[in-house]
Amino acid sequence: MLFDTHAHYDDDRFDGDLDSIMGAMPGAGVSYILNASSSVRAAKKGLAIAEKYPFVYASVGVHPHDAKDMDGGSIGEMEALLRHPKAVAVGEIGLDYHYDFSPRGVQRERFVEQLEMAARVGKPVIIHEREARGDTLEIIGKYPGLTGVVHCFSGDWETAQIILGMGWYLSFTGVITFKNARSALEAAARAPIERIMLETDSPYLSPEPVRGGRNSSLNLIHIARKLADARGMSVEALAAATTENAGRFFGIRECSPTAEKRGDHVL
Question: What angle do CA 162, 166, 170 make, to 5 degrees?
Fold first, then answer.
């Protein structure tokens, strides 16, 4: 029972065969998927997908690449979308200083606005960070009441410890299967099992041994096997733990049976 906590099925590359891909999920051991948005338009499409497939949930947020396209009505529109029963998180939001598709000042401003929105609506946040470690940590450190996950974590153990010390989560993609990704794999192997999640970031970052093509949640098993081996545990145990973590993080009762017992927010 695997949970792909970050995929982009709103991407146009899935328009032609989404039904067949989703129909294959049970055979691949994938029980839950979170469709992460990168824009208001993507969030609307993601929620429509979540309405169609019972095992799919969605997040609402604007990626730093698209921060420049936000206007005065964007936050209000997103807050309305977050009232949808299958909208379980704010994201992906954050900073990307690698491409700088949006000016850095605009990225920071929109990042803060969306963190404040998450605090108002009581949703966890999904963070995108690329070559912006210092500013990202400084900004999220100002929101101790929020719970978040750094998606596609590719940093070192030192950075991982800072994020974990905030009570946040780390999510790992097919990057950990790449030969040059020793730091990310080390962090994945050393982090507390109750603070890690799995994701594909589909259609991007296909893992070994299927690297190079369009990615999908059907490839999540390759990531799970790599991490289970690095941690010295069975794939079944890793799948159970990471799925429960995701259920707890997103507040989804059915895949986190202990959440209700602890009094966590659940859908």
Answer: 70
Residue carrying the six token digits 């970031």: 201
Q: Nearest to residue 248, comparing CAs of 236, 263, 264, 224? A: 264
- Within 13 Å and on the Cβ side, how many CA atoms surround 145? 9
Could you read off the pLDDT of 163-181 as tens digits, one per residue? Answer: 999 999 999 999 999 999 9
**Dihedral angle over CA of 137, 138, 139, 141, nearest 10:** 80
On the question of a cis peptide bond just before residue 192, with omega within 30 degrees of 0, the verdict is no
The CATH number linked to 182 is 3.20.20.140
Extended beta strands in 49-109, E state: 56-60, 87-96
Average pLDDT over residues 139-157: 97
Answer whether residue 202 is part of any domain.
yes
For the chain, counts of helices (H) and of strands (E) = 10, 8
Strands (E), 131-206: 148-150, 169-172, 196-198
Containing structural domain, residue 177? 2-262
154 is a domain residue: yes
Residue 267 lies in a domain: no
Specify the pLDDT at position 255: 81
Q: What residues pair up with 125 in beta bridges, in sequence order?
A: 90, 148
